[in-house]
Amino acid sequence: MGKRERQESVTGIKGIGDKTAKLFEKCGVRTIDDLLTYYPRGYDHYKTPVRACDVRPGEINAVKLTIIGRVTLRRVRNLSIIAFEAADQTGKLRMAYFNSPYLMSSLKSGTTHIFRGMVQKKGSFLEMDQPKIYKDVEYAALLGTLQPRYPLVKGLSNNTVSKAVSAAFKSAGEFEEFVPADILGRLSLVSFSQAVYNIHFPKNEKSLEDARRRLAYNEFLLFVLQLRLLKANQEDIPNAYPMIETSDTTRFLEKLPYKLTGAQERAWEDIKADITGKSVMNRLIQGDVGSGKTVLAMLALLMTASNGYQGALMAPTEVLAAQHYESFMGLIKKYNIDNLKPVLLTGSLSAKDKKEAQRQIKEGEVNCIIGTNALIQAKVEYKNLALVVTDEQHRFGVRQRESLAGKGMNTHVLAMSATPIPRTLAIILYGDLHISIVDELPMGRLPIKNCVVGTDYRPKAYKFIADQVAMGHQAYVICPMVEEGELDGVENVTDYSEKLRENLPPSVRVEMLHGKMKPDQKDRIMDAFARKDIDVLVSTTVIEVGINVPNATVMMIENSERFGLSQLHQLRGRVGRGDAQSYCIFLNTSESDEAKERLDTMNKTNDGFKIAEEDLKQRGPGDLFGVRQSGELNFRVGDIYHDSDLVKESAMDADRILNEDPELSSIQYSVLRNVLTTKSANLVDFATL
Ligand code: ADP
Ligand code: MG
Fold this sequence. Notes:
By secondary structure, this protein is an alpha/beta fold. The strands form four sheets. A seven-stranded parallel beta sheet has the order 11-12-10-13-14-9-15, sandwiched between helices. The chain has a six-stranded parallel beta sheet with strand order 16-21-20-17-19-18, with helices on both faces.
């Protein structure tokens, strides 16, 4: 099978009918190519069995034990339970099987088996529920292998996906190599084809890590190349929209109820120097959550407007765009900022409203366009766009620049990000971007109080939330899932909001929010929360990016062990945005020591840079899968912290390649050029949930 056939539907694979294809579609898998690049989110590792005294609660363990004492079969209502104890010289475990009476014949007292399953601590006992049973030879065949675990939807089993992927490979042929051989040799990278195969079916940890590194390198190289090509088009572009400082911004600053922090002040000076200077602005503002980046955006947009130009503010979500719009409108009214005329333009506007907004933009009736990527669609015509601000999305900024450059507009670009990237990496990744770091929180902020707790703390947490609501505050509760899914013990927003309604006083208004809702529905809920018509918002991580409701003082995160530390930090950043004391409750539902240790980091510091560092230290290569990091710079496989060496190498390689062949026009780069042009849309795609 070649490249063309891989674009065909997955129904071409034996065993995939329309029904399964529909399920795959829910996972974003339509073509065979999609399937081959539907990477596992983790692996089941068949390790050497451990001794009973070495099992680790909260994890999957394999252990070779002899059944001691009696094997009992009980009935509880319509459930049948097999229970027994099994031991080696070092200790014993309790075992339980449900509705599997046929196992009685093989589970005889005195027989020895390898048991593999999740170990739980129950009181002073260790227990394994439903462990798989293996004979020595069976286990030996699996030993050392890693079996893929795929992201699933209800109705789609891991086995189905794994089989389909395997079948697809049988006929898939080679993936065309686009990285020059000398680079592969220098960095000891495996071939593209081998990497794609091994990311699904690694023979061992080494082959998994080799595959991961190769795919990470691909992502970085293409990303950096794309940036560099863009930069080549933008180098030293004269400032086509020179501005002067007007009284509008100084007056606005005088009216604000607070003084800018030193760091905000410096960033504002940087911005002013750029837009009044000789070349076009390309600036990244990097500041921790809550450091006050929005006001910088507003100042830049106000200055642009009072110079007679238009500016745009782009947010990664409709919710965030709507919130920026509301807060701008609020400030404009309060402080009579007549010269700034915002309009909201998002994908969920009705066709009529969209048309009207577009007309106002084209005719220059508005000068501050706030919205999502609907803004950059070719249809929108600006009268005189001079500045684009992108909020909370590095890569968004890249795409934006590309799109604008494509239209021949060399506007000023200001990218704002809360992802703490060490300056050295940022310079490699963003080359020509100038960087201002806002590393100071507004005065008078009380540090957020944190606690990491187990599930038995829930009643207390609910009481605490109820008390805070009674004091007039609001709370967020985050769950990893939208609705009941295939994952046991993982909370979902739908059931959880019901549960909260039952557990909180009836006067507490609980609502839910998640990414599967329609945009206007999401907006309505966010608005209601901002207006204090909702007390407790149960949400997925859609809430993660930039939402600002200073009255919210509690953030409770269910299954917090399932999130990356940087992401937890972003979530926590939704509280502690006002004067009141705020709290973050990390609910740890895992019993593993590692999870506890990781979460304790959140307890120790509120500093985003420190957390990013710690996050990196604590993760091993296998952990890089499945832990979703913050929404920005989220490569599918690569991790800019963990793979920082590859980021550096890929940047060097990109520069060398372009030095040699600036247009990638020679034969040896033809595949690379092809990949860049066809994949570019994916590359700068941003995370959605
Ligand atoms: P982020 O950097 O996370 O985007 P925001 O811009 O949303 O943060 O600011 C968070 C909150 O801090 C907002 O309510 C904003 O009004 C407030 N704020 C911003 N700058 C200051 C300041 N210098 N002093 C006091 N409060 C500020
Ligand atoms: Mg923000």
